[in-house]
Structure formats: C-alpha cells, structure tokens
User: Which sequence fits this backbone?
C-alpha cells in the first residue's frame, strides 16, 4: 500500500498553488473524462499512421497543393473548351446551339445600344452603338477582333469591358450570334474616321 | 420518511464522481408539487413546439428550416440567404445578451425549465425509467439485484425505448435541416443512398442515447459552458433556489427544544437530480429544477409549518437582507439586449427575397455624345429564393427628357440565380448637371416587394461652347 497522499485526512486534499486567492481541490478526475483523453491518444495513433506512416491520403500542404492543381485544371479546361480563333468562331456562328445561346446573351446585354436588330445607329440615329450587320467595322472585323473588342471593351467610347461580366463562354456565343449575320470571307471595311481620337 | 440517499453530499467534491473517479449513479426520488406540475406543463409545451416547428408552414416554408443544401434559412416566414448571413451576428449576440439578462435576473431558469437536456431527461427519459422500474427505492434495489430474467427484461425494455426515443429525437433534429418530406424519403431509401445522412443519424442517435441513458447530469456539471458561465453573471440579488439558513438551523426533530424548521429528513437531497444538498448553499451543480422546493414544502405542509424553507429567492433575500431587482448589471445587460434586439429587428425587416446592386461600368464616368450626356451602369440582380422570380425594372428621379435603355424587358432570374443588365441613361446636355441622384427600382410581378438603389448620373460641369463629341469630359470634383 502506498502512503496516504493526503497527510491531513480531516482536511480536504488541496493543491499547493493559489491564484487570486483561489485554491484547487486535488479530487480525482472522472473516469469517463480520463477515458476521453485516452481515446484521443488512440485516435492520434491512428491518424498518424493514416497520414504519416502509410500515407493513405496526402496531408496538409500537399493536399492543398493537389486541390489547387485540380482547380487550375478545371479553370484551364473551361477556357480551353472555348476555342478562340477565326475558324472556330465562324464554325460556331453556323451552329444553332451557339447562336441561340448567343442571342439570349445579346438580347440581355447588348440591345440597349446595338438594338434588337443589331443595326444600331443605322436603324435609329439616336441609338448608341454602331451597326453590327454591315461590313463596316471600327475596331476590326475578324471574329477574333470582335471577341477582343467585346472582352476588353473600348472604354474611351463607352463600349463596356464585358470580359469580367460575361466570361469567355458567353462572349464567344454572343460573337457567334453577331457573326451569324455575316458570311465568312465577305469584304471588311475599317472605318478609321470613327476610331480616330477626334473626328 | 424513507432515506434513499446512500451518500452525504459535500461541497468539496462532486457527488456523482466517487473518490476513485468512478460514476455514482443517482436515483432521484419523486417530488410531486406545484413546481413539478408547472415544469411538466412547460416541458410538454416546449416538446410540442420542437415537434411542430418543422411541420407548420409559415409563408410557404416550414417555420424553422435551415436548408443547408441550398444555403437558405427559413425562420418563421423570414428567408435568409447566404448573403444575409451577417444577420447571424445579431441573432447570436442577441441570444447571448438575452441569456445574460435572464440569468442575472432569474438565475438558471433556462436550465430548470427550458433546456432540452432537462426537458427530455426529466420529462421523457426519466418518466420511462419511472414507469418501467418504479420509484427511487425500487430503482435502487433493482440496480443492486442480481441479473434475474425479470431484471434483464426490464433493463432491455428500458434501453430499447431509450434507443427509439433517441432515434426519434435525431430524426426530428434532422428535419430542421432537410425538411420532413426529404427525411421521410431518406428513411425509406437504402442507407447507402444517403450515406452521409445515415451516418449522421446513426452517430447522433448514439450520442443522444448515451447522453440520456448514461451521461445525464454530467453534461450539466462538466460540459455545459453556460452552467459554468452563470457564476460570472449572477450576484446576490439574482433569483436562485436556496435554503433559509436562519429559519432552518439548527436542525432537529419536530418538537425538540431550540430546533429550527429543518427536520433533517434529507428529502431535499434525495430528490436532487444532481446529487447535491441545497442546504450547503448555492452550488454550480444546481440546475434550478425546484425539486427540492417541492420536496421540502411537502414536509413543511405535513408538519403544519410554513412552506418556503427551501425556495426561489435571492441570496440577499435568503439571508434576510433587502432584495433588489434593479442593479447596475441589469441595466447594462438590458441596454445591450435592447440594442442588439432592435438592430436585429431593423436589419431583418430589410431582408428581401432578391438583391439589387448597381455599379458604374468600367470606363469614363460619362460620355458626351452630340447633344446628350450618357452614363452606363450595370444592374446586378440576385434571386435568393428557391423558385424563379421575374422582376420589372425601372428608374425614378431622372429629368423627363432622359432616355433610359436596357431595362425595358422584365428580367427572369432562375432559382438562386444571378442576372446582369446594362442600364444606359442619356440626358440632354442642356438638362444634365454635375450630378443627378436617381433610383433604380425593381419589383416583382405580384408587387409583393420592391428593391431600390440610389445612383448618381454624372455630367460635365457646364456646357462648353463646342461640345467635343465622343470624348469623355473631364470631371472636376
Ligand atoms: S439543488 Fe434543488 S434545484 Fe438544484 S438541482 Fe438539486 S433539486 Fe434541483
Ligand atoms: S430542507 Fe426541508 S427537505 Fe431538506 S432536510 Fe430540511 S426539512 Fe427536509
């Protein structure tokens, strides 16, 4: 038998420290409480084995890295899915799926200036945007020029920067819709008088 | 009077933990009385409320439905979206201050009367135990008895009912998060189809079963943070359950000379669900269940003495000092509570089922185009509901000669979707000014709500002699 840890059995067993006049009884912790401590130790062994010994799954920084790679890949796939070159944009402009989607985007966002007919100033002198159905272009008339103009906008003249608002997919569709009013290989006239700083 | 407590509670130790750390199970005796009846009524009403909240519909949604899958939170007809989550700050701080206030005034009224732990333990699980195993003496004898078939049968029946009750509580709890029809659908599906929900239900059932079958008062004594926090919130004038020392001491048999009113029958100890002796003063274990009041009042009534030797009173009142309800801390907690509640109420009243924001488009603040000044905006609409909504857009407060483009067609927004529309405003040069404040307004087809946002139409300072068309004009501030 070990010695009685409490030398004064009539006095309660009190820990030696005192904080702000508060002392602490040296009562035994509940067994169920100690059990939770032992259970966490057992859990820790399993956790350590899972991640560090057998490396069932990557842990910490590695798993973040992997997740970031997955996100980047998904982002790339989203842009890569949209092939932006003249040829593919012309091809999309003949595909009703793209053209229909593009019409919806156009009618929600572009008709305020270019009108529903796409004819802008040609239809009504009070319209804000230029005609998109004629062969006269201001900022380039190749499909990729259109894509660039829509994405980057022409802030000096009020053409909004649609890139961050609509994203590549919807811009591609809208460009396809505009191109559906044109024919590949038609003559293009660049109207420099409008794009010059002062008319 | 039967003494059913084989222990003498001391203040230096937790009664329910023996000196070797093992658990001492309690067999609290029945304590019929007025508080017992009132508490049972309150508990049944609360259980009815818990049960009804996910069933009763308010404004098309269950009264409380925390739709985690769609990040929509329906509270009594108010629908909060993820965008409204900042309100949670006021909700939680409001609850916190509410708890502060109530605790400082009424002590552990919550613990004894409204806490789900007490409500389910005292009025559901302990009732089952009482029904199957009998009163405190019988329960204690059964616990000591050898494992006869009758004991095995009783114990198995009790645990089986406990498990069923725990499962029922868990499903009810899940219904707050996934709605009754989906809970029902999941229950009929194979567990593998809703693996996550199944594991959650199984684990939660296990935890709830363990809590009510075994853990019980340990939760209040060791785990519940509110139980520990209360000692910092209460003072000598807080309503607590206490023993009238002056009246009761010295304890003695009825009729013995010089004795106080306490007859040392220990009834108050035997009924206590946390195993303390209230005559030793206010202790952290006390959950304010008032069982000891009912127990002592019954004894006093039998002896023809006044009730209230153990009673609801403040520490000041129990020691014969004047009682005070209004103290500085009541004012401070009260003011904080009122501020929190009014801010929460005010901000909740501003919650709409959709959101409207408008920003100036990237580029120049304005364009001078011939005889007109043009401003371009982007109007962004977010639908926070799980059904589609159609909004009509308009502007107000612009000069009559202004032309507005882009908002003509009604905007249909998919459930929880987002739509962007350009807004182009042109004002004749002659009528434009440095800034015209106008409003973008959206309202749903039924006219049940309206959203608006104030914007500024900007123009050049004064009409120059020769308008420089297409050039964005400089703007001096
Ligand atoms: S001391 Fe009285 S009020 Fe407190 S828990 Fe025990 S029986 Fe309930
Ligand atoms: S306080 Fe009341 S119930 Fe408790 S021992 Fe004294 S007389 Fe009995």
Assistant:
């Amino acid at each position: 038998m070990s010695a009685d840890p409490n030398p004064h059995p009539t006095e309660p067993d009190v820990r030696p420290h005192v904080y702000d006049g508060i002392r602490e009884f040296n009562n035994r912790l509940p067994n169920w409480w100690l059990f939770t401590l032992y259970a966490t130790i057992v859990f820790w062994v399993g956790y350590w084995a899972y991640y560090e010994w057998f490396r069932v799954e990557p842990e910490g920084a590695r798993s973040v890295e992997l997740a970031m790679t997955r996100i980047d890949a998904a982002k790339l796939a989203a842009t890569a899915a949209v092939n932006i070159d003249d040829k593919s944009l012309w091809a999309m402009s003949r595909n009703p799926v793209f053209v229909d989607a593009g019409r919806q985007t156009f009618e929600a966002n572009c008709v305020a200036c270019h009108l529903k007919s796409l004819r802008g100033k040609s239809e009504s002198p009070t319209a804000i945007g230029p005609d998109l159905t004629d062969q006269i272009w201001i900022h380039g008339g190749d499909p990729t020029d259109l894509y660039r103009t829509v994405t980057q906008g022409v802030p000096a003249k009020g053409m909004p920067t649609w890139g961050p608002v609509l994203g590549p997919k919807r811009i591609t569709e809208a460009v396809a819709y505009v191109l559906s009013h044109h024919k590949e290989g038609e003559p293009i006239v660049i109207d420099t008088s409008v794009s010059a700083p002062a008319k | 009077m039967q003494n059913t407590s084989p222990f003498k509670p001391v203040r230096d130790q937790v009664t329910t933990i023996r000196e070797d750390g093992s658990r001492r199970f309690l067999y609290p005796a029945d304590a019929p009385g007025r508080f017992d009846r009132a508490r049972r009524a309150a508990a049944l009403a609360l259980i009815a409320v818990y049960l009804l909240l996910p069933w009763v519909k308010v404004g098309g949604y269950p009264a409380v439905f925390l739709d985690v899958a769609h990040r929509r939170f329906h509270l009594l007809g108010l629908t909060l979206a993820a965008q409204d989550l900042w309100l949670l700050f006021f909700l939680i701080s409001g609850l916190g201050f509410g708890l502060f206030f109530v605790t400082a005034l009424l002590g552990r009224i919550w613990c004894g009367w409204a806490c789900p732990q007490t409500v389910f333990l005292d009025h559901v699980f302990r009732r089952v135990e009482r029904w199957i195993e009998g009163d405190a003496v019988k329960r204690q004898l059964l616990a000591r008895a050898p494992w006869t078939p009758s004991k095995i049968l009783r114990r198995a029946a009790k645990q089986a009912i406990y498990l069923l009750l725990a499962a029922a509580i868990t499903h009810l709890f899940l219904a707050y998060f996934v709605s009754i029809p989906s809970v029902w659908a999941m229950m009929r599906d194979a567990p593998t189809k809703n693996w996550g929900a199944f594991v959650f239900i199984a684990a939660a059932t296990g935890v709830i079963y363990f809590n009510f079958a075994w853990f019980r008062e340990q939760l209040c004594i060791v785990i519940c943070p509110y139980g520990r926090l209360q000692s910092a919130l209460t003072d000598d004038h807080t309503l607590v359950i206490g023993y009238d020392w002056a009246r009761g001491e010295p304890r003695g048999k009825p009729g013995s000379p010089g004795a106080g009113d306490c007859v040392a029958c220990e009834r108050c100890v035997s009924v206590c669900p946390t195993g303390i002796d209230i005559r030793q003063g206010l202790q952290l274990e006390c959950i304010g269940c008032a069982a000891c009041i009912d127990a002592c009042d019954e004894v006093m009534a039998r002896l023809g003495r006044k009730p209230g030797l153990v009673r609801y009173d403040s520490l000041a009142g129990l020691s014969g000092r004047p009682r005070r309800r209004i103290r500085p801390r009541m004012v401070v907690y009260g003011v904080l509570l009122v501020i929190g509640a009014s801010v929460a109420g005010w901000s909740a009243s501003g919650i709409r089922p959709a959101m409207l924001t408008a920003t100036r488009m990237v580029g120049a603040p304005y364009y001078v185009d011939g005889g007109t000044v043009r401003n371009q905006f982007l109007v962004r609409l977010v639908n926070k509901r799980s059904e589609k909504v159609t909004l009509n857009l308009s502007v107000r407060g612009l000069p009559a000669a202004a032309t507005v483009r882009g908002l003509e067609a009604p905007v249909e927004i998919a459930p929880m979707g987002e739509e962007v529309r350009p807004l182009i405003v042109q004002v004749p040069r002659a009528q434009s000014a440095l800034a015209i404040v106008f409003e973008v307004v959206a309202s749903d087809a039924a006219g049940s709500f309206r959203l608006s946002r104030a914007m500024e139409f900007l123009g050049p300072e004064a009409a120059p002699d020769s308008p420089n068309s297409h050039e964005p004009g400089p703007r001096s501030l």
Remarks:
- Residues 1-5, 465-477 of chain B have pLDDT under 50 and may be disordered.
- Chain B has two domains: 1-114+217-351, 354-476.
- The longest helix of chain B spans residues 149-178.
- Residues B 243, 248, 262-268, 279, 295-296, 299, 309-310 surround iron/sulfur cluster (ligand 2) (CB under 6 Å).
